[in-house]
Amino acid sequence: MAGKGTPATALLQKQKVTHTVHTYDHDPRAESFGLEAVEALGLEPGRVFKTLVADVDGKLVVGVVPVTGQLDLKALAAAAGGKKAKMADPAAAQRATGYVLGGISPLGHRSRLPVVLDGSALGYPTMFCSGGRRGLEVELDPAELVRLTGAVVAGIAAG
């Protein structure tokens, strides 16, 4: 990993959080970054989570949901204490997090953003999420993700 760290992996190391880094060769033609990770790493799809940035009443909020589902914007808005949510402008999401689309991690954002984690994550001893770039997943205890991000845990996945 020397020279290949990201703000997410640096945060995990600094906080001495037990985690495992998993890398794979990202295919630029992949239509779903999360499902690509599932296939490339041979993982159970329910344990792999995607990080999505939404605009809730004019403020950016991060939703972390299983790659097999969709983000329920209404549920995200409620969990974040807002009324209405829509997907964030991609450029705004990249600016606020410091990551490129397909590589946005729930950890190590450029600007501190509220995080909402789908409750299904707590059903697993470890979960996988983006490590901060395409082709990089980190495996960690979901309770550690909640602790590090101050995440609210709620049912925000649909489908």
Protein traits:
five-stranded mixed β-sheet; 159 residues; 5 helices; 30% strand; alpha+beta
% residues in beta strands: 25-35%
What radius of gyration results from the CA coordinates?
14 Å
Shape: globular
Secondary-structure-based class equals alpha+beta
Count of individual helical segments: 5
What is the helix fraction of residues, given as a range?
25-40%
Q: What is the makeup of the main sheet?
A: 5 strands, mixed
**What separation lies between the terminal Cα atoms?**
35 Å
Please identify the oligomeric state: single chain
Number of strands: 10
Q: Which strands sit side by side, in order, in the main sheet?
A: 5-2-3-6-9
Q: Point out poorly predicted stretches.
A: none
- N-to-C SSE series? HEHEEEHEHEEEHEE
Mean pLDDT comes to 94
Describe the structure.
It is a single chain. The protein has 159 residues and is an alpha+beta fold. It has a five-stranded mixed β-sheet. Strands 1-8-7 form a three-stranded antiparallel β-sheet, with helices on both faces. The longest helix has 9 residues. The radius of gyration is 14 Å and the shape is globular. The termini are far apart.
Offer a concise description of the structure.
25% of the residues lie in helices and 30% in strands. It has five helices and ten strands.
What secondary-structure arrangement, pairings included, does this model have?
Layout (H helix, E strand, L loop, with lengths): L6 H8 L4 E5 L9 H9 L7 E8 L2 E8 L3 E2 L1 H7 L5 E3 L2 H8 L17 E4 L8 E7 L2 E5 L1 H8 L2 E3 L2 E2 L1
